[in-house]
């Protein structure tokens, strides 16, 4: 197994992993990004994300996609958008190696926090993160204003 930074040519495999995650999370039709979109967003003059991939026998079987955020309390923090391992390769340490890479990258950046979300029913992932020292915050709620919500946003109270 090899963990490395992604390349433009990896985005088709990354998109396949993103789609696999959407299916696992019971939202198979939710993925709107395309390979071209990922290439443009990740490899332009001002990349919007950094992606690490896991390879086994020259096949991309996992990925971790991160980007910087700003916390008014902490300053720059790193957000882990997704950590995905192909279902056939789970339980082989690939997820741990990807998370190790993300944490080391966060240390290199000097961030004060690395944050991400995990679905409440994904008990395997919760256990995995807790075993590595992550705190699962039960009191915080994730808030999304989707495209429809943005378009129909009202300033009325």
The overall pLDDT, averaged over residues, is 95
Strand content: 15-25%
Rg over alpha carbons: 16 Å
Cross-sheet strand order for the largest sheet: 1-2-3-4-5
Structural class: alpha+beta
How do the helices and strands follow one another from N- to C-terminus?
EHHEEEHEHH
Descriptive report:
- The chain has 157 residues and is of the alpha+beta class.
- Helices cover 34% and strands 24% of the residues.
- The protein has 5 helices and 5 strands, in the order E-H-H-E-E-E-H-E-H-H.
- Helix 3 (94-109) links the parallel strand 4 and strand 5 (114-115).
- Helix 1 packs across helix 2.
- The radius of gyration is 16 Å and the shape is globular.
- The chain starts with a strand and ends in a 6-residue tail after the last helix.
- The model has no long low-confidence stretch (mean pLDDT 95).
Describe the SSE topology.
Blueprint: E1 2-5, H1 11-24, H2 35-43, E2 50-56, E3 59-71, E4 75-85, H3 94-109, E5 114-115, H4 123-131, H5 147-151
Parallel strand pairs: 4-5
Antiparallel strand pairs: 1-2, 2-3, 3-4
How would you summarize what this structure contains?
By secondary structure, the protein is α+β, with helices and mostly antiparallel strands. 34% of the residues lie in helices and 24% in strands. Strands 1-2-3-4-5 form a five-stranded mixed beta sheet.
């Amino acid at each position: 197994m090899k963990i490395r930074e992604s390349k433009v040519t990896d985005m088709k495999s990354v998109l396949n992993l993103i789609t696999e995650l959407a299916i696992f999370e019971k939202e198979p039709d939710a993925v709107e990004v395309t390979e071209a979109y990922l290439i443009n967003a990740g490899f332009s003059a001002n990349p919007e994300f950094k992606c690490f991939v896991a390879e086994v026998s020259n096949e991309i079987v996992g990925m971790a996609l991160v980007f910087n955020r700003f916390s008014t309390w902490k300053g720059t923090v790193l957000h882990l958008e997704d950590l995905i391992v192909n279902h056939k390769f789970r339980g082989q340490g690939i997820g741990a190696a990807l998370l190790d890479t993300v944490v080391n990258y966060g240390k290199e950046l000097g961030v004060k926090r690395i944050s991400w979300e995990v679905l409440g029913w994904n008990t395997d992932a919760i256990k995995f993160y807790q075993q590595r020292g992550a705190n699962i915050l039960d009191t915080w709620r994730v808030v999304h204003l989707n495209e429809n919500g943005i378009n129909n946003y009202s300033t009325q109270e």
